[in-house]
Specification:
Layout: E1 8-12, H1 22-26, E2 31-33, E3 39-41, H2 50-62, E4 68-72
Antiparallel strand pairs: 1-4, 2-3
The structure holds iron/sulfur cluster (SF4).
Cofactor: [3Fe-4S] cluster
Function: Ferredoxins are iron-sulfur proteins that transfer electrons in a wide variety of metabolic reactions.
Pfam families: Fer4_15
């Protein structure tokens, strides 16, 4: 789980995604598959519980294309 989930967003690179849906199996509450078989990710906005973040982390680790990443959107330094 990211250290500060309130400042974390899930990024999914549609150009890398091959639509195998592993992420959707692991975190169906977050990931979805479009009609053209490219995954997308819902955004948390700090509302997800620990279990959901654990599922997201599992999806990040499981994605064979490394298409999913977690971004810290902290505004520090801006
Ligand atoms: S696991 Fe990765 S490649 Fe597979 S659908 Fe999800 S984002 Fe796309």
């Amino acid at each position: 789980m990211p250290e500060d989930v309130s400042m974390t967003r899930v990024r999914l690179d549609a150009d890398l995604c091959e639509g195998h849906a592993l992420c959707i199996q692991l975190a169906p509450e977050v990931f979805d598959l479009s009609d053209d078989e490219v995954a997308s990710a819902a955004q948390a906005d700090g509302q997800w519980d620990q279990g959901t973040w654990d599922n997201v982390k599992s999806a990040v680790d499981a994605c064979p294309r490394q298409a999913i990443s977690l971004l810290n959107i902290s505004t520090k330094g801006l």
